[in-house]
Amino acid sequence: MNENYNELLFGALARHKISAERVADSVNLVRGEGPTAHRVNVDLAAFQEVLPADEADVAIRRYADGIAAVMMEPGRSIASSWDFARTVARVTPRIVPSAFLDGARAALGGVPPFSVPFHGDLCLVVIVELDRGSRVLTRSQVDAWGATDDRVVAAARSLLFHRTRDARWAPRGDGPVYELSTIDDERAVCSTVFADVFYSELKPGARFGIPARDTLLFVLEDTSDNLEALKVEVDRAFRDAEFPLTGSLFGFESGIPIPVEH
């Protein structure tokens, strides 16, 4: 077992205010205090098995991010028993890489999070906002509702749409690239409603990138100069991001993000 990887995981979790206590080849994790503290045990061998050979440090941060998302739910939460009607008014989507799913599943005791493919290594998950904290929606809870994936994602996009209506964009430097500003750091997922929110401003040639979860960059027309400038900014942001997503460029087809070649 690579102990350096374990230490990187513990350090990443500490930044999420999660304490770690090593127990043989597993680790007990605690977030919070008292009766609402969230406690989980994670198998370290299983954690290391899913790490890629390259860029393990990035994958470890993503894995820790998935664990932390699960542990945002208070220990005595009953949200796992909520029905669709009670949950649907509190859901928003998030774009995450597969390592996030691995970490979330580990923190959920092997229960997979609800997810749908987005692009490449990326998926959409759904976060349920609670009165205190938040919950990663699980596949088993959705299956118990009998709801389709499309219905769940549509509900999450609906709430995101209303939250994004007040978003603004501004030039990124002196070139043709713009960046989205929102009230929180989950800007990348706004791409799923971007064409709907700004339908009157966007042109058919609009292209965008989501190099990190807190970054959405775009150009209004797909000229060669614009695309080159966008690719440069996306590559730079992807390289420098703490939580990188993808260096790909996207367009819109009937308002839905689709990858495009450059």
Order of helices and strands: HEEEHHHEHEEEHHEEHEEHEE
Q: Tell me, what's the shape?
A: globular
Specify the structural class. alpha+beta
Residue share in helix: 25-40%
Uncertain segments are none
- Give the strand tally: 13
Number of helices: 9
Binned strand content: 25-35%
Q: What is the distance, rounded to the nearest whole angstrom, between the alpha carbons of the first and last residues?
A: 41 Å
Biggest sheet character: 6 strands, antiparallel
Average pLDDT, rounded to a whole number, is: 92
Q: How is the largest sheet built, in terms of strand order?
A: 8-9-11-10-12-13
What is the alpha-carbon Rg in Å?
Answer: 19 Å
Provide key terms for this protein.
alpha+beta; six-stranded antiparallel beta sheet; four-stranded antiparallel beta sheet; 9 helices
Summary of the model, kept short:
By secondary structure, this protein is α+β, with helices and mostly antiparallel strands. It has helices at residues 3-14, 44-49, 56-71, 84-87, 98-107, 139-145, 149-164, 194-197, 224-240; strands at 19-23, 26-31, 38-43, 91-97, 115-119, 122-129, 134-136, 168-171, 178-181, 207-212, 215-219, 249-253, 256-260.
